[in-house]
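user: Kindly work through both lines:
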Amino acid sequence: MDFEPVIGLEVHAQLTTRSKLFCGCSTEFNAPANIHVCPVCSGHPGTLPVLNAKAVEHAIKAALALDCKVNMRSIFARKNYFYPDLPKGYQITQFDLPICQHGHLDIEVGSSVKRVGITRIHMEEDAGKSVHAQGYSLVNLNRAATPLIEIVSEPDLRSAEEAGAYLRKLRAVLMYLDVCDGNMQEGNFRCDANVSVRPVGTEKFGTRAEIKNVNSFRFVEKAIEYEINRQAQLIQSGGKVVQETRTYDSGKGVTISMRSKEEAHDYRYFPEPDLIPLVIAPALLEAIRAKLPELPDQRRDRLIREMGIPAYDATVITSSRRLAEFFETAVSHCGNAKAVSNWVMGEMLRLLKLDEREVDDLQMKPDELGALIRMIDAGLISNTIGKTVFEEMYKTGSSPEAIVKEKGLMQISDTSAILLTIDKVIAANAAQVAEYRSGKDKLMGFFVGQVMKQMSGKANPGVVNELLKQKLGAKS
């Protein structure tokens, strides 16, 4: 029996506000434990929450960018459960009337575009953090009540690859909006995956398992792939999938059962009595809509249209706001968009992947890449030398001019020096000269290579080609 996966994703994105959702405590990451805590976010009796207006604006931005319907009136609720790092004994969230609903996100998988529905986006507060040691546990409440939006997709995804594409695109959109910094290592962009399988051709959903808090795109994809295979094998062997919450062990590459899956009634939701309904003024909604920035798809289309770079290059470059900004700044300093695209898509992304680094980690500045390309276009250095210079720029952040000067890499265009080398190459390769003159045109590449080798790659290739043709003479 063949099975079809059915996948829905719940993404928790921490909003980039300076203060928490219901109090003035800082959201600074990695501060000493329990420094950013007050009676409100630590759940002292008698304290009252005050909603962070900036968090509301960020949630609306995300809603508009994802084509959601913004509810002009929404309410907060209490989600009741016990855990040591949940100081109030409940989480303030939104339940039956969230801030926005019914949107979508278009993703590219291979050569096709797929629309993934978004069920809802709601606002909520984060919990604190439990730190488990040998024989005891500690609680850090610095993160308690930091503002989140939870973005819940429809069960429209049908493979781990589609899930990865959705997450990468969603993260890019939120980062373009400046509403989330997307740092998965710090827990600012977290994903829960709901996975089930059903026989191909059937409409009824199977029993789903929820995989909690996976912190990288690669691990999300691997966890989903494992879970699809686990459920399919279980059903084929006569077993039954149970509804449960599972975690992913990245070391072993398996999902592990944590607990039975809770339903909504288990949390005893009821309206938050300390917060009045959130009512959004139409003028605020339109003001936020007017300030929306250029989003990844819009930027990709503009780069293709205005700069003439290939669609694939434009898609990769605009997948990250920082990468797109680096690209456009470099182009503004050299005017050669295709050359910048080639360097970014080739050497730069190769080195970043090799070092497992991000664009933000680069020492090299975009204007320096533009300067390197200007030097190549002006014939001051060759493309081959350019790669050497680029790697040094990547490692040290030095300017291309300084590297070329320090290492003596300036391209040689002096015809007398090049002619002297050409004479040596012709004298040392009489047999190849005879073959070339008998009509073997492809040997020209051999002669160019020999001259460039003897001149340590510093000779101007255009000048070398022209002088070689003159020296070798007409072919029979």
Observations:
- The radius of gyration is 30 Å.
- The chain is about 40% helix and 20% strand.
- Residues 448 and 466 are 10 Å apart (CA to CA).
